[in-house]
Amino acid sequence: MNQKWMKQEGQKWVEEKIITSDQLDLIVARYPDSKEMKKSTGILPVLASILIAIGILSFIASNWGDIPPLARLGLLVIIMISFYAAGDKYLKKGNETLGTSLNLLGIVTFGASIILLGQTFHLTATDARLFVFWSLPAVFYLFRDRHKLYFFLLAVLTIGGQLYSMGEFNNFSYFLFVIFLISIGGFVFLYPRTLETWLFTIGLSIQAFLLVIIEDLNLLWFFLFGFALYTAGMWINKSLFKQSFKRMGSLIGFAFAYGLYFTLTNEFLSDFEFPNPAFYLPALIAIFALAILGKRKESIYLPSWELIIFVPYFYLAKVADPLLTGLLYLVVMFAYSGFMLAEGYRNENRSQINFGIVLFLLVCLMGYFNLAWAFMPKSMFFLIGGILLFMLNGFLQRKKKRILKNGGPHHE
């Protein structure tokens, strides 16, 4: 919306005697478009500063060998301080976009300086300590300015550092995990916003998965993490955490059901290992107890359909036919996605309906692939599968529109 559009539309309101000319002037003056102008024109200085920074860093890197060590150190410190000083100067002037961008460049230069210094003095890295130090200025600026760009940069540094640690050193950086948990988790807890809360939840899940992989734990421990995340969503009071924790926990539980169905119905049981029951079962029982108590706390009738995806049916493979256990997972996934759709329709909750449709179509696709792939000609298999999915999706989408047409969604 800009002043030109508002004046044009407002003139019609004046002619229809909805408002007077004086009131139109007051309304137009109330919404100046200078901020929008600043936003659009502010991109150019940001791009210019990025190009200049890349040019400086490229020059230093290409001529690094010709510069004396002390001069290198001094040059990097001057560039870094210049970015920080210029960033704070523009922030004080009210130019938030440019000031924040320059401070971000200062943080990037800080990390580049550590890397280049390590190369100069032949320092050998044995862990992801580089990313620990690199994250510290991002933490400072995040809590000082509360700008989302610092949040995204910090998320990249902590999660990217964890991936680097796994790829280069095959170890899990607990320092980076603590920084992620305290800084990013603490920030979204103090200043909850939807996107940032989801990023924290996804980042936490990625780090938990990396921990399981690096420490060579059984993958079913990650299933337990998903269940714990879902249960934590029942007990936490923040609504944004509640939604993201429960949704991500359900996704992890559903993904495991999907994988277990495929494993158990395709004779991969010899590769399937169970976690140590002495540790796994007590933890599973404790989380189940907390989940049931959480449901009672929310005054929801027992038993809840949401918990069926977290029941450890895989233990049945020890005493029963693995194929039957795998088919049980298929039935559970159908029931789970069906319950989710039914509840979404009942509550007129658009996001829950969409989520349920996606899960239901995934289950249909999985079942179709597993049952029809072996005996059908491949051309007919893909043709019929595509037509069936289109028809099923069309039916579910029409039903959603019919349910939501009177008043739209109550929840997004």
Distance between the termini: 25 Å
| Bulk shape | globular
Average pLDDT figure: 80
Number of helices: 15
* Low-pLDDT sequence parts: none
Strand portion: under 5%
Query: Radius of gyration, Cα only, in angstroms?
Result: 28 Å
Instruction: Give helix % range.
Output: over 70%
From N to C, what is the helix and strand string?
HHHHHHHHHHHHHHH
Tally of strands: 0
Structural class category: mainly alpha
Main β-sheet description = none
Give a structural overview.
The structure is a single chain. Helices cover about 75% and strands about 0% of the residues. The chain has about 400 residues and is an all-alpha fold. Helix 13 runs antiparallel to helix 14 (about 350-370). The chain is globular and about 70 Å long.
